[in-house]
Amino acid sequence: MIPRKTMPSSLLSDLKKRMEEDRNLPLRSGATQLVFGEGDPDAEIYFLGEAPGYHEDQQGRPFVGLAGKLLNESLEEIGLKRQEVYISNVVRFRPPGNRDPLPEELAAFDPYIDEEIKIINPKLIVTLGRFSMGKFIPNAKISQIHGKPLFINWSSQEIMVLPMFHPAAALRSEEVLKMFKQDFKKIPQLLKEPVQVEKKEESTKSANKQLELL
After folding, report:
1. How far is residue 72's CA from residue 85's CA, in Å, rounded to a whole number?
2. CATH 1.10.150.320 fits 8-193, yes or no
């Protein structure tokens, strides 16, 4: 955990500047600008999506298109505002044609994502889609574990992760939208009612060894 001698907002500003200056980051040449995370630097909830789309690339903000509208509406339905949470992506430049990010691209951004999470120090990480889920729960299928909060060992600390479908996937399917809404409703309970779980041996390599909370 980063000591609070330095304000989280200052640490995030420094992180953004370093990312903007890092010429080794992939996807830069085809993108308009870096799309950094936004929201409350002291947020309890950290939403982690996939990559910027067209509107995000143009505005320099995450989740501002149709998927972002659904995310905003879902937050309001559980009594939260967008500015009360933190929203980010595992890749910060728009992939050409909105294609899936490649493994080497995910790996390049990964250290910066880790640092961002440490700065915010959230109580709950909500992964939106299979690529952000794969950062914490590799080799799992989102169709099997969505909506099931897990305690995982990450960066030498125990952290709660809630895997969810990406809002864009929910917009393409009524069935997925229904599951997305149901999973979203679990968030307030996870924040207000800490779940007591037994200690277990460290394991982050397989979803089969994760401890389900609900």
Report:
1. 10
2. no
Give me the amino acid identity at 194.
Answer: P
> What does the pLDDT look like over 105-157, one tens digit per residue?
999 999 999 999 999 999 999 999 999 999 999 999 999 999 999 999 888 88
13-19-20-25 Cα dihedral, nearest 10 degrees: -170
Burial of 82 (0-12, 13-18, 19+ CB in 10 A): middle
Residue 46 tokens, joined: 């950290």
Q: b vs e for 43-60, b when ≥16 Cβ sit within 10 Å of the residue's Cβ?
A: bbbbbbbbbbbeebbeee
Burial class (CB in 10 A: 0-12, 13-18, 19+), 77: exposed
